[in-house]
Specification:
The complex is a heterodimer of chains A (330) and B (328).
Chain A: H1 8-25, H2 27-30, H3 41-44, E1 51-58, E2 61-65, E3 67-71, E4 74-79, E5 82-87, E6 101-105, H4 116-152, H5 154-168, H6 172-182, H7 187-198, H8 200-213, H9 217-224, H10 229-265, H11 277-285, H12 292-320, H13 322-326
Antiparallel strand pairs in A: 1-2, 1-6, 3-4, 4-5
Helix pairs in contact in A: 1-4, 1-12, 4-5, 4-7, 4-8, 4-10, 4-12, 5-8, 6-7, 8-10, 9-10, 10-11, 10-12, 11-12
Chain B: H1 2-29, H2 45-54, H3 61-73, H4 87-122, H5 127-141, H6 144-158, H7 177-215, H8 218-225, H9 230-267, H10 273-283, H11 286-314, H12 316-326
Classes of the chains: A mainly alpha (330), B mainly alpha (328).
Chain lengths: 330, 328
Amino acid sequence: MSERQMSGTLRVGLALIGLIGTIALAAPWLAPYDPNEQLDPAVGGLRPPGTRLAAVKLREGWLLADGVRRTPEGLEVDRRGRTDRLATAEVLNLTAEGVADSRYFPLGSDRFGRDLLSRLIYGARVSSVIALLTTALALTLGLAVGSLAALGGGMLDAVLMRTVDALLAFPDLFLVIALAALFRPSDALVVVVLVLANWMGVARVARAQIVTLKEREFVLAARGMGRGWLGIWWDHLLPNAFGPILVQAALLAGATILIEAVLSFLGLGIQPPRPSWGNMIAEGQNLLSSAWWIATFPGLAICVAVISLHLVGDGLRDRFDPRLRTTADS
Amino acid sequence: MLSFLLRRLGASILLLWLVLSAVFFIVHATPGDPSHLIEDPRMTSAERANLRRIYGLDRPLVEQYVLWLKAAVRGDWGISMVQNRPVARVLGGAILPTFALAGSALAIQLGVGFLFGVAGALRRDRPLDHALRVLSLIFFSLPVFWLSLMAILVFAVHWPLFPAGGMFSIGAESLPPLARARDLIAHLILPASVLGLAFSGQLARYVRGSLLDALGQEHIRMARARGLSERRILGVHALRYALSPVIQILALSIPALLSGSLITEVVFSWPGLGRVGFDAAIGRDYPVILASTALAAVLVIVFNLAADLAHAAIDPRVRDAQAARATP
């Protein structure tokens, strides 16, 4: 296998992430309906996957029906076992057979008759944006602290790295939940809490990389030519430490998606009615016995997203750590 | 060895103090002052001032902090504002359930993790290895709270084999001890399996990796050259070599196990530390928030020290390094 060729793991992971990213970007065009559209909760609510309902347009809004029949006087509509009669003048989308519109729920509908697939697609937006933002910020913070520790050395290094170790040794969910519960829930809070809980791994990796790199000959040569540490850091240290940090970033993005989902599931993250995979699962929790699909599909989406990020992490690790490629390749 | 442990303990206590101080000030800096919990709109302002005085909320923040810290060191964690019981008693009742859950989960994690890891390493790059690696990756990537819900959906709702939540059935107090134990185990199986399986994925990956690493070492080739059986090589020589990094990983994963336990406890209504901490956070019961955070940190510290000891017992290199570091 040539050096430049990507491993299968990496390729599959990147393809899946690309797919999720595309879905997130193109959500308005991909989603069949508005994610918050509640046409007729009494009839459209809690429908299993694959349900198709006729949509009857009235002057004051929409009616959903299991079936419609055209009669000489107008329309007969079946609404959950009850049959109503509507006059021709009342129905605005009448055709020769019935009505012109319908609603199709490929993944079912929730309690309010909202289309689960549309909510899932818009939920990809929330997860992607939060994961991207958090990863970028945590990466920046971790790089800054790790580099400072590695270049500062001595006391500064000791203090910073002991703090990182201490934070890593802490059950983060206890802190994250306490923080999220004490402030009013908002997107900014979610990002801040996630960054605070996730920057330490990057700091550790960055420090370890830079500590070894800064003793290397090309860095000493740059020093000898009179370059300052800031320039060396930017030109030499950062690019050379890039690989392992990228691996860490992929794992971090996966962790972010998981914790965001937990927070939203517990009602401390993204607030309804805006769909996020976590709060969709929360909405399905109490309906588990009557409507299994509400909690199931968003969870699968989270799994796919996290698995693909882990695949990318694994693939990048194989690529950047030749020792692993020859011995353990895991 | 002893001085190494003492230093670790010192660093841990420092960490504990830092975390607690941070949580204390965050709790007191948040918009909703904790006093709103004990207040009542019908109270006169004199009564309100009196209450604030009883809880010490009228004093300057730094003074409150010092008083709280002094009491906490003595083991007096205050009184829960929601439950009106001493915090020590609220948490005391939650420790055993968490131990039962996290302990069983750890056992399942170790069993499945080693089984998958060793089997994968033995059948390297064969179909079984690939299947186990995919399975490990999936376990590793699953959201624990969702897996909990799916377990309830399948094994409590669809096939009602196990109870969907709680630790005992209603009226279990009156059962004879054996039936009570059986009731407890029936309630424990689902949450412990979910938690254990979710964490076994990562362990399996590490066991496999470090076993393959070990199999590539000189002393394994020596053992092969001496004509030892493959089973003996793997079971005795390679596994022992591989155990050292695995114990490190296990120690590092204990905070995550406690976090996972929190979410499992919330979904399964398991009356443990995580559930108590979560309810306290939602209800802004700030003495309980502080104490449960502290207790979680203490548990991690204790287990990390235990892992250090186990590590030193298994790996002579660690023992020597610790002794060398301790002497100067």
